[in-house]
């Protein structure tokens, strides 16, 4: 695959040994951000396998996107379905809780919203660490963002730095060779993520960001609003809305 070399700060490389060929696990939901991470990783020479975790979300629309995009890229996938009954505290999981609706300019000013899934990224990164040791990968790549986001505590630089330290101390690969945890989107705003995705030829029409299910994005949830703001500011057409 030919793609432009993208310079994006990846500040969480605890150890970054130069290797001719690196294998990465990309935490991959089928949404815009994680799809951009996958395309970024491939463009930067990583051999990628994806890890997609379902945890009882109200809908599995994103998973279809993840499958289609992985097929298109011909990358190896790992799909995992975990059922933790207490995650029902999140409005992404509990069918009885409505999704919150905020004006886009207020999304980051609200307290941690009901869409927060307790410990989700901690769980995902622990699972990625287990997979990494099993398949001999060097790198974990995830798509958290601390600029245009909903204020989740497990999307912050401090959290990812701490997890990178833990994985380097608590995995075989970590203690013998060192591993990297990369969060290439962490300091980009949504418009910059869209621009990066556009430059990498991400198939927007295959990605799914909406918290609600259905055939088309709802346009009302926080995720839809942040996505729309990003495309608008970047001056790029979101082909998922066709
Ligand atoms: Zn939505």
User: Care to count the β-strands?
Assistant: 5
Average pLDDT over all residues: 86
CATH architecture: 3-Layer(aba) Sandwich
- Structural Rg: 17 Å
- Strand-pairing-aware structural class: alpha/beta
- Unreliable parts: 1-18
CATH homology superfamily name: HUPs
Structural domain tally: 1
Which cofactors or ions or other ligands sit in this model? zinc ion
User: Under CATH, the topology is which?
Assistant: Rossmann fold
Proportion of strand residues: 5-15%
Name the helix and strand elements from N-terminus to C-terminus, one letter apiece: EHEHEHEHHEHH
Side-by-side strand order of the widest sheet: 3-2-1-4-5
The CATH class label is Alpha Beta
Distance between the termini: 27 Å
Portion in helices: 25-40%
Shape: globular
Counted by DSSP, the helix tally is: 7
Tell me the major beta sheet. Answer: 5 strands, parallel
Describe the structure.
There is one protein chain. The protein is of the alpha/beta class and 242 residues long. It has one domain: 3-Layer(aba) Sandwich (Rossmann fold). It is built from seven helices and five strands. It has a five-stranded parallel beta sheet, with helices on both faces. β2, α2 and β3 form a beta-alpha-beta unit. The chain starts with 21 loop residues before the first strand and ends in an 8-residue tail after the last helix. Zinc ion binds next to α7.
Describe the SSE topology.
Elements: E1 22-27, H1 32-43, E2 46-54, H2 61-73, E3 76-81, H3 120-135, E4 139-141, H4 157-170, H5 172-176, E5 180-182, H6 190-199, H7 222-234
This protein binds zinc ion.
Zinc ion is lined by residues 210-212, 217-218, 220-221, 223-224.
């Amino acid at each position: 695959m030919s793609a432009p070399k993208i310079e994006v700060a990846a500040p969480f490389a605890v150890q970054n040994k130069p290797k001719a060929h690196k294998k990465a696990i990309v935490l991959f939901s089928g949404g815009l951000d994680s799809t951009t991470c996958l395309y970024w990783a491939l463009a930067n020479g990583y051999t990628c396998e994806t890890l997609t975790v379902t945890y009882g979300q109200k809908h599995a629309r994103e998973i279809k996107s993840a499958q289609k995009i992985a097929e298109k890229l011909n990358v190896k996938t790992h799909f995992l379905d975990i059922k933790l009954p207490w995650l029902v505290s999140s409005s992404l999981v509990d069918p009885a809780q409505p999704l919150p609706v905020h004006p886009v300019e207020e999304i980051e000013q609200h307290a941690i919203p009901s869409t927060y899934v307790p410990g989700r990224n901690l769980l995902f990164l622990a699972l990625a660490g287990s997979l990494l040791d099993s398949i001999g990968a060097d790198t974990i790549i995830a798509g958290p963002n601390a600029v245009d986001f909903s204020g989740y505590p497990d999307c912050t630089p401090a959290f990812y730095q701490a997890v990178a330290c833990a994985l380097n101390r608590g995995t075989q690969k970590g203690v013998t060779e060192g591993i990297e945890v990369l969060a290439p989107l962490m300091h980009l705003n949504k418009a910059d993520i869209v621009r990066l995705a556009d430059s990498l030829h991400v198939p927007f029409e295959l990605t799914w960001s909406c918290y609600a299910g259905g055939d088309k994005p709802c346009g009302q949830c926080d995720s839809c609003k942040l996505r729309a703001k990003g495309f608008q500011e970047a001056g790029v057409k979101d082909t998922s809305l066709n």
